[in-house]
Here is the input.
Amino acid sequence: MKNSKVIALIAIGVAFLTVCLICIPQIFGNDYEVSVYSPVSVTPPPENVSAPDEVSKPQNLNSLSLAIEYIIENKASLETSFNSRIDKDFLSLMAEKIGDEAVESLANALENGKVKSEDLLKIIGYSEKALLSLIDNDLNRTTILENTENGVTDLVFVGDVSFSDGYSVMNYYNKRAKGAEGLVSEEVLGILRSATVAMANNEFTLTTRGKPIPNKIWTFRGKPENVSIYHEMGIDIVGLANNHAFDYGPDSLTDTLATLDGAGIARLGAGENLEEAKAPYFYIVNGIKIAIVAGSAIDPYSTRGARENQSGVFQIFDTVSMSREITAAKEKADYVIAYVHWGIENTTNLTGGQKSMGKAFVDAGADVVIGMHSHCMQGVEYYKGKLIVYSLGNFTFSSHDLTCSMLKTSITPDGEIKNVYYPMMQKDNFTYINSGEAGKSQFELLKSLLINTEISDDYVVTEIN
Here is the structure.
């Protein structure tokens, strides 16, 4: 009997050992793969075998925290200016400012190898410079805009504007009683209103105070409520670096600054001191950061230049001062627009100063240089692949019939710049695109003013290599 029990136990033991030898490799032969930083994912267990109850993972670790850990461990594969700053706080702030998905996308990208700063826009939706501005809350004189549907940033620029009372523009505005449509064609207004950012040169004061500057032939002053016409036109920002921003003295400039601020119209090129006058204005849109810098090389005598403790305009009678500001702006922004008052009135001829300044500003980092002051259209040139428009001319400024123009600079999601240069006319205090048979002579004039540049029938300007 005892022998039978022993034999039975031995048989059971052998059977159990056999089953173990057969089944254990099947159960434990497959590795359970866990993503380095993503939420835990497990390869399917073998058929008819239950998976383990738990897969080991750090406690309280979600996909964002996993991504943060992975980026910190692999930051050597990042080629950006902020590598030394990468820690949990930096990445958590990044998630707070632009979303968890951006951090997780960066971790995903690092899994595939090195990531350069120029790759960030496609990976996280923001360029390095735009990202750092948001993280550091470096948003002084900055407007953050909603992204456009197609990801294209359209910047539209027009020239000289005056809503000065007692002169022809406001006389016709009031007489026609059509609002902005009484001064500008619907086609032009449509381009301005649909632009991501639209800019004009504010060449008058918005004030009821002050006295005209002595010995100055033309001085311009409009009631503060005239600023509403900018809203009608779709203008977002104005330049004040010109020879009429100080026409009625210090009070007139102070009032102009306050009126524009109160109306929500961004401004640059003049201020209560030099620091304010020379400061760029920034936009963040479609994940990129754009800077605009404005300066005036006109009238050092009756238009006061800003100083450390003195209001006035940003005067740039040498190339160094403006170039310095352009370079500083380029350190913070992906694209820089230089908006300049220069040259001689009522002529298409360029001065040597315009040519040398324009090229110096490109060398300093400007992606587009836009000029005005001549009250008529002037030449267009490419230099080192960057566009220089020497004068847009008037937009809505006087009763004279003059050629003028409008520039639309479009920045694509791939970073390419497309420039469209519209030939326009200011005639009978009405501004319109001069096309068709009526615009042939102006189109031919425009072509004659082009320097190493060609223009298509739909006004796209490109460089001739």
Summary: Residues 63-135 form one domain. The longest strand covers residues 417-427.
